[in-house]
Structures
1.
Amino acid sequence: MDVLSVQGQGALYTAIVLIAVIIVVHGIKLARIGYRTLGKKLPPDPPPEDKEPREPVYFLVERKKRRPKTEYSAPRRIDFKK
């Protein structure tokens, strides 16, 4: 006795194959990344920090200047041709 119809079985098999392909592709990608990192060396230890404090750094910032106000002339009348 079939639980699923033919279309349901096809959809189920398609989903199973899709999930299997996704797992295989991601597994291959992760294996390539891991293989590339095998030959790399770890970065050297960081240099020891100095005991004396560093001098502070000051930035010179110029203030924004206001634009001079422009004076507008009296409004002109515009005549549209009919």
2.
Amino acid sequence: MFGKGAGADGPSNQGAGSGKGGLVRRFEAMAREAEKAGRFDRAVHLYVLAFEESAAGSQHPDARAIEFLHKAWDAACNAKERALAEYVFERLEPYCSSDEVARHAEELQQMTLDKLEEFGLSRESLKDMADMVADDFTHFGGLFQISSDALAAKSPSSEDSSKEGLAKPEGAVSSKQSENDLQSPYSYTYKDLVGYGRAIEHMRMRGVGLDDDPHFAEFLKMLSRRHGIHNTPSVETTLFRSFAREDANRFMAATVGELGYPTVRMFMDETPQGIPVLCLNATSDMRPRSGGRGFEGPGVLVLEDIDLWGAPLADLADEYDSFSFAQLSRGAREAIMLIRSAVENPEVVVLASSAEDSQLEEFFLELLDPIYVFDIDVPDEAERSEVWKHVASLYPSLRFIERSDLVRLSAHMSREDIYLASREAVEQAYGESVSKRVFVPVTRGNIYDKVAAYQPLDSKEYHELEEAAVEEFRNDIDGLKPDDIEARGNK
């Protein structure tokens, strides 16, 4: 709105500094004065101007710039102007967490109810009407939520267990971090994964993960010259399946990171009322096609845990015909159209994930056809050794347990299960340390007990773990003095 030199065009700007920073401070000061005078509508526009000037020339606005939008939102709410609040919400939404988006949406609804109440409509009748609309949406395809640049929320890397699946703990996502502090979960690639050697090699055979290979790059250039295609066409949907769906999702996320294209992610979630909702997130570099939400240029569509999408799509579209399609809500119809358009677009890579033992609905098999099923096996001995080595780097007290024994006894376990068992053992030792006020290390019996919980009862690994636990218990008894035994008996 303003040129770069707008903040230094005359003597009137000298008191507030010059250049970009001075102009931002002027807008902020004027906005505060407007708030004090009760001119909240004017304050909204001034805070938005402060944001635009502060964020000018930057692809990712900093926290201070985004704070101006939060202040603009507060001013719009104080003005009780829904139109103003919607205007600010559109600017603010890309920088909000999912909880903040839901809260602001409720505030917008509250403004609408307040305004309608002024026209004589009772709040009870308005609430009944809203419930009827909600029931209709639930019956015809559920709710459909869309938010841009929000991939950090509920991402494959947002859980503690997922951060342990990355090779670089410092690059992982802590559960204590704010969602606003996170970047895309697809910012990590194959080199950051642990225990996926065979899967990575398989994808490289398919041409993914070879950006650092100059020979392959030259090969692609030759193909582009001879065929006239500048991007490798995507001719099929890749369905990642694994014994533990977390393993599949983690590998799929790294695959997206390798591709480096603008990404749209679709996944199922639940509202606080327990209603299933289909959510759609997009990275900030995603450019929607004019007239719709399709892709403009190369991109990636991620369908997370598609085997769990029992509603709102599959149950209501057993037959993919015009009648059943018309019965779906607008959001569900747009979701189906987006998926199908991506499948048919050779510039868009479609990736989906599911559990290995799940069977996709026939509806999805037809929607995603053709499908290439890629089963990610549980880690072999070499991959398990990698995982346990990484576990020891995360939890130093586990370094004193013989790694070769852990590798052998964790056969047939998923990567996710190994990290979970390790975490549980460490947390137990930590809790005992706090209780006793002394350092309690993770013992062999402790970690064996946690690993055994993830092994089938009829497996030879479980029986060996059971025998080891009994042996350790006997050793503990043999090492006790009579006074210790008497003391324990008196407790």
3.
Amino acid sequence: MKSNNSGKVIIPVLLLLASTITLFPALYAFPAADDFCCAWLARQHGFYLGIDFAQTNGRWIATLFQHANVVLVENIALYRIVPLVAFVLILSSVLLFFKTYKINIPGIRNIYFSWFVTLMIFGNMPNISEMLFWYSGSSTYLLAVVFTLFSWSFLHPSQSNGIFYFIGIPLLLMSASFNEISMFVAPLGAWFLNYKTNSRILYASISVFAATLSIALISGGNHSRMAFFKDSFSLRYAVTAFTAQTLRFAFIFLFSLPLVWLFIAGAISGKIAEKKKFFKRFLIPLIPSVIAIGLPIAATGILGQHRTINYAWTIFVILIIIQNKDILKQPVINFKKLFPLLLFALFISPVISAITEDMFRGKFAEFSRIMQENRIKDATGPDSSTKEFSRELIPASLENIYPVRGWNSKDNLCPDLYYGAIKK
């Protein structure tokens, strides 16, 4: 009895500790790059950011959320609360999705498993900074995951016709309108998960995809962007880069999760009741990553950013669990014994390990001091040279957001535009 009671205490305590470490960098997050550009556009043109940004591309739902930058760039405390809200939203969408699709884990509560999966997603994410600690990235890609999982849950055949038509389909339409990757993945996933039991899902998915694709195609910004990258496109490079990146991330995705090793062992043990083929178990979940890699290369001729891979990674984790839920239900899988090992694997995951190391090295405090100095200089009269510093000074969990030597010019241009407009 004492052992069972201690387990009930230790598991949530460890999950809470891992969550605290994962969210720790939020205490040192600052607005950057597109955050300032979106705030500047909103100040210039009002709600929905005006014609200059609203018609840049088909990301009309993300554009609505970007308007919050007007408040966030001037309220650092509020900006740092956003990652916590995003984390709770992801956890809630994962919990509802697993409950809807009957991921019943024997031996532990479903909320613990959903909590663990959420931490596993962030702990092994290719680049957590662009997904969780940078509002412009999280509002375009992380919220897309949240809306996608909620829409897939409400489109499940167990829901009533009213929920299907008045909640599920609108949510699916919004999910597909966050970015170009979700435009394909959200409707495709909705169809794949439910096509055997719901005849209406095909028409709903096609309609949503057609609507979002039409918006993207008529958006003037997409045409100008493709024209800008036209000269850099090379078919040979595109094929080579696509193949290399697909194989690279397929390997990373399939061999970086402790659960995948569990699924592989279960699939080859011969003790499972349902004999799914390898393709259905392990390759179908990789399709979002193929889309996330292929679309940027096809559209621009260059490799995509990690934020698109972050989105594909999150969907991969969800789908790999769904495709192997029969293994999770087998008596041979003793979660009471395995869960402590899974928690240990969580704490040695790349992101949580890196955050812990940077905490002990004091990198967050030093980084905060430098960024605060630059922020003060921005407000009094920005000088681009003062906002560039060595990448080694940036904590690993906050990389690729803030201005460093040789990085994106928008890191300096956007604050200059924003603070310049305020002074006027």
4.
Amino acid sequence: MKIRNLLPLLFFLCGCGAKAPQFEMPSFEQEVHGRVELLRPEDLSRSVDKIVPYKDYLVLFGGFRGGMLHVCDKRSGELVKSAVFSGRGPGEIITNLGADFNAANGDVVMWDIAGLQYLMFNLDDVLTNPVPEYRKGNENVCNWSNMVFPLADGRMLMRHLVSSTGLNPQKRFVIYDGGAPVFSYNEFPIPDTTTNLNFRLYQQSRFSIAPGRDKLVEGTSMNGALLEVFDLASDRIVSRWTKFLVEPRYDHETGREIKPHLFGFVDVYAAEECIVTVLGDDRQDAVCSICIFDWEGRPIKRIVLEDDYSVKRACMDEAGMIYAVVEDKDTYLYLVRIVETGPADGYSIPADKIERFTHEEDSSPRPFF
């Protein structure tokens, strides 16, 4: 028998002893309704990749009329500053795939996948100086890179995409000290050896680093919902826990996704005390839930919008106020504040159901075929 014919059998035998993950939507301690309070009446245009609070501002990364960075007043929603325009000059990038924001000092890194480079600057410098300092870099960047996170001691965490062929030349996460790798991490919650399911799951995943820069959260957004939290340091990244919420929707023989797509974690935001997520559910026509987990993985609160909007991005400031970008039925985007209006009728969750959604004991789930 040829070796390639033995491989699927070997993978099957290796996976038989492992317990398959149980996918289940959690029951939250609180289920409440919320209404949308518009901060500015005009639409944001194009797309918003990320929203973060900073001092008296809301910082939006995406594609806008004028710039890929908008800084808005937190109370009025008025535009304070636009920056980072499309181009190849100083302070310009070709595309904006993602951004990392350090709330402790205002440092920003924007990832330009088309230019295979990153742009670094300080937000306070952009707000106060007519000619702020922008620095571009491409150290340790390769074709599989899709995000850069500065760490302590001048080190950098590089996050890489999964290869569509299943031959991943780079590790999932690599920490570099200058040009030298000091730590790498290449585990996935679902070991996938034949269909390359993780290529489908992680192409558009969402991630955020906690304000203390000691924890990272990543959630898969399309065709399945997995939520992972990692402990982070300048010399290591360690899995803390994984939650399996929505089972991946795909063809087990080919690994291709099945349409229509399922929404998973449309967005994740790492606040100081909790994780704010925008999570798809059984109402796949509109993502109307903002779900909050604590850092131990416990489901704390689910806010279900009363208004006819779909939530695209969300964040929480130090006072616990939630801000979001929502989309109306005509696909216009708006910057809003979420105001809780009271308990959601029919969502009283017994304690035994909450306890059922706890840390998974088995860290080696069975491979999918």
